[in-house]
Amino acid sequence: MNVSAIVIHEFGTPVEVVRVENIEVPPLDAEGAWVRVLASPINPADINVLEGKYPNRPELPGTPGMEGVGVVEKVGAEVKTLRVGDHVMLPHGLGCWREAAVIAEAEKLHVVPREVAVEQAAMLRVNPATALRMLRDFTTLAEGDFVIQNAANSAVGRLVIQIAKANGWRTISLVRRPELIEELRALGGDVVLLDNDEVKDQIKAATGGVPVKLALNCVGGDSALRLANALAPGGTLVTFGAMSRQPVRIPNGLLIFKDLRCRGFWITEWYRHASHAEESAMFAELFALAKRGLLHTPVERVYPLRDAVAAVKHAMQSQRGGKILFGAPEIAAQFSPQT
Q1: Which residues belong to the active site?
Q2: Where's the Enoyl reductase (ER) domain (predicted)?
Q3: Which domain holds residue 41?
């Protein structure tokens, strides 16, 4: 059977390489499930995939899309843990910008509670998972502990603020533009400061001497060094992005006399090694936060697959009020400009 999908035959300028085509879907077997895709976001990493700049790329021709959510419409005879109508997280590496897919190992799918909105569920696998894993996996944070981050207005940065707030951890968020300070405070940021050379003393004053155990860096260069200087002895700097395209430079003295740890994080690598039980536990935590309204990513527009070029062009605009997604007709209609 054929379904519509966005297919790329080469890497290059994103709006020039995306095409909507029919692709063949394998038949449903006893252990599989037919899943209709409800929504899938366009993340910055997806744009990098289209450009051929991302480490994890589909074979060509291939279908992009790192995450999404779908609804189960058929199940194989041996599938016991899923029911028709269940909402499920699409598996990592599927290529989610498509109309539907047959999932071979259906019982490994994670069922999404109906209380979680479709568009929010579609965006849980990458950015919220990245924020949660970095907050949990590199040090043990107690209630009241501080976490510092740069580019705090990014998608991951905003989620770090929300997840930390829900767990009683305090955030120091560095941004480049003054108009973002009140916006991030309203989101729940405890301390929001401008990322400049004066910030060192401001951080000390804001924390009152409480040690900062964890720093999250997605910028690099001088900004990363400011994070490292703010860390307490034995603290950990986790790098997960390189927005400035400048390397992380840590002076020898910070490593020797403060015994700082410098680590990297990539959610794709985490999924590569995580067990099904570990994935389930993480999604259960994210679902719980989303159900309580404590985890939310704004959405600006949802496009049908047929509008692939317009959607990608919109996603590449720097000034937006939220994420851009592909969605099934009933989801796209909820976010059309007329609604």
Answers
A1: 54
A2: 12-326
A3: 2-123+297-335
